[in-house]
Automatic annotation (TrEMBL):
The keyword Cell membrane does not apply. PANTHER family: TRANS-ACONITATE 2-METHYLTRANSFERASE (PTHR43861:SF1), TRANS-ACONITATE 2-METHYLTRANSFERASE-RELATED (PTHR43861). Keywords: Methyltransferase, Transferase. The lineage of its organism: Bacteria, Candidatus Collieribacteriota. CDD domains: AdoMet_MTases. Residues 47-122 form the Methyltransferase domain. InterPro entries: Methyltransf_25, SAM-dependent_MTases_sf. GO terms for biological process: methylation. Pfam families: Methyltransf_25. This is Methyltransferase domain-containing protein.
């Protein structure tokens, strides 16, 4: 590990309470349906889930699909094993910036809402590619790198024009951002977010043998009520929460 701890093992209980067996709201409504559609998972697919957390994707797969989940947090892997009864699924504790220790090759791979919490994402993309078949497809889902930068982006209101807009303070700089999981608690566990501009993800994929096939930007389907509902709903439709990159292994 680097000097700072980037595993989510110290927030296993908190994360489990938020995500649960089916995933949080956005897992269920936006992220997992989008992943399933873009990867077109089914039949005899062999799926590698990198930084899998507690295996939310695994529990949405067709039962016949072969699946391997890898994560550094042994607490999250323990939760994944407890909730998953499919004998074709297996879970491994490993640091995905150093090794993905399986002999198998996979034709589909996913890194879902995790790459921005990994220091050294280029290493993770490289190792993932080494485990994939030629022509295999990788999907990376990110908190949108432009519009959702912790501590550097926020909602603002233009009262004169009755608009809600997104303020972006920094974008092109690479940033290491500490996240207090329980703000106001001096003993709060800390996780890390590593911001990169979109061009960096393109570069890492290209340098590690991938071609980008498609990029999608996913908005929230939640709806506001009350006096500010019109401006809030319009802003929600205009500023995506997530970005999905679908890439093919050369």
């Amino acid at each position: 590990m680097e000097k700072r701890e980037t595993s989510w093992n110290n927030v296993t209980k908190w994360y489990g309470e938020i995500v649960g067996e089916k995933g949080h709201f956005f897992h269920q409504a936006v992220v997992i349906p989008g992943v399933m559609r873009l990867l077109d998972i089914g039949g005899r697919d062999r799926v590698l889930d990198v930084a899998c957390g507690q295996g939310v994707l695994a529990r949405r797969l067709p039962s016949e699909v072969s699946y391997t989940g890898v994560d550094l947090a042994h607490g999250l892997i323990a939760d994944a094993k407890r909730m998953d009864i499919n004998k074709k699924h297996k879970y491994i504790v490993a640091d995905v910036t150093k090794s993905i220790p399986m002999a198998e090759k996979y034709n589909k791979a996913a890194i879902i809402l995790a790459l921005q919490n990994i220091k050294g994402p280029d290493k993770t993309i490289k190792l993932t590619g080494e485990k994939m078949d030629k022509g295999g497809k990788l999907i990376i889902v990110l908190n949108h790198p432009c519009f959702r930068i912790p501590r550097q982006s926020s909602w603002e209101t233009d009262a004169k024009n009755k608009l809600q807009y997104r303020r972006i303070n920094r974008y092109m700089s690479s940033l290491e951002i500490p996240i207090n999981m329980h703000p106001g608690d001096r003993n709060s566990p800390v996780t890390w977010s590593f911001h990169l501009p979109i061009e960096e993800y393109s570069r890492m994929l290209s340098e590690n043998g991938f071609l980008i096939e498609k990029i999608e930007e996913w908005t929230s389907d939640k709806k506001s009520e009350g006096k500010a509902a019109k401006s809030e709903n319009r802003a929600r439709d205009e500023f995506p929460m997530f970005m999905a990159i679908l890439a093919v292994k050369k």
